[in-house]
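Researcher: Sequence recovery benchmark, item below. Answer with residues only.
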């Protein structure tokens, strides 16, 4: 029990970080499945303009 009380702050911060990282990963996976891109849609200035899946949608 002393271990928990001595390290309570570290344990809580670690759990919070794990929750945040998990939420970010879930959002990225959902966006990927929906076909949502994080590029912003300005394909004219993109280095991967020709290889992007959404290149036909944005001009």
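Model:
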């Amino acid at each position: 029990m002393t271990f928990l009380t001595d390290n309570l702050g570290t344990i809580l911060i670690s759990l919070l970080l794990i929750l945040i990282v998990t939420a970010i990963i879930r959002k990225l996976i959902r966006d990927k499945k929906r076909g949502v891109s994080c590029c912003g849609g300005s394909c004219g200035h993109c280095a991967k303009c020709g290889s992007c899946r959404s290149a036909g949608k944005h001009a």
